[in-house]
Amino acid sequence: xxxxxxxxxxxxxxxxxxxxxxxxxxxxxxxxxxxxxxxxxxxxxxxxxxxxxxxxxxxxxxxxxxxxxxxxxxxxxxxxxxxxxxxxxxxxxxxxxxxxxxxxxxxxxxxxxxxxxxxxxxxxxxxxxxxxxxxxxxxxxxxxxxxxxxxxxxxxxxxxxxxxxxxxxxxxxxxxxxxxxxxxxxxxxxxxxxxxxxxxxxxxxxxxxxxxxxxxxxxxxxxxxxxxxxxxxxxxxxxxxxxxxxxxxxxxxxxxxxxxxxxxxxxxxxxxxxxxxxxxxxxxxxxxx
Length: 289
Ligand code: PDD
Prior knowledge:
Layout: E1 3-6, E2 9-12, H1 23-27, E3 30-38, E4 41-42, H2 45-58, H3 67-80, E5 89-97, E6 115-123, E7 137-143, H4 158-169, E8 174-178, E9 184-187, E10 191-196, E11 199-202, H5 213-225, E12 229-232, H6 237-241, E13 245-250, E14 254-261, E15 264-265, H7 273-285
Parallel strand pairs: 7-8, 7-14, 11-12
Antiparallel strand pairs: 1-2, 1-6, 3-4, 3-5, 5-6, 8-9, 10-11, 10-13, 13-14, 14-15
The structure holds N-(5'-phosphopyridoxyl)-D-alanine.
N-(5'-phosphopyridoxyl)-D-alanine is lined by residues 34, 160, 186, 189-191, 210, 212-215, 249-252.
């Protein structure tokens, strides 16, 4: 049984209920985070907290907790779910919406208490750069049709969901998205890296993509602990098509190799050596960033 957190209470997930007048339900008016943990230790907690705070501020929602209060809340939630099989890790889903209002008005209501909801879910164990254990992805490509503020981790994910379903309809597990200039933005639930001629590239951060915590940690780790070059800048469709390796990153998949794009193999169609080096590095330092 999964224990959830809702507005101060820890309770079985099935018993957690939220009013249909909650603005998260009516308008997608809220911010979320997905924070990975292994053996009770968070990965990138401070970075997740900072992104959450920035996201809440960007929609003029006052953060309902300090970093310490949020950490305590989530640690209690992990403990409450410790009886589950955690051979892998526990992902923490956290959502803060503007709250429930008696009327459906687009404008923000004056005084309203945010709704805070969290639950845990299993995530796979780390694989330490082992090529044979990697979860590899076949993906398709598509035009990024989402809104102009994808840097906000908003719960309004319909654009992402529809893009994911474009991929699923073609038998893929993810979709790489390109803007109208045919520049790579990100994927529907992940950031993207490519490796070409031994150098690693990832799109620079702007309003068209989420500043992924996994992405940012990986860039920092590579720069500090490896001799590999990492460039943040424009990645064109041609760069992706001619890449030796392509990776997806997110809190639930860490660094995952893409082996096929639109039916064409990426490199040799297997996780590449640079991926293995990067994932091994991530395994070593995931709790230090
Ligand atoms: N998604 N880009 C998008 C659109 C995402 O939804 C995510 C993560 C990322 C990677 O961000 P991070 O490394 O901080 O997880 C990039 C989460 C896991 C989700 O929605 O479930």
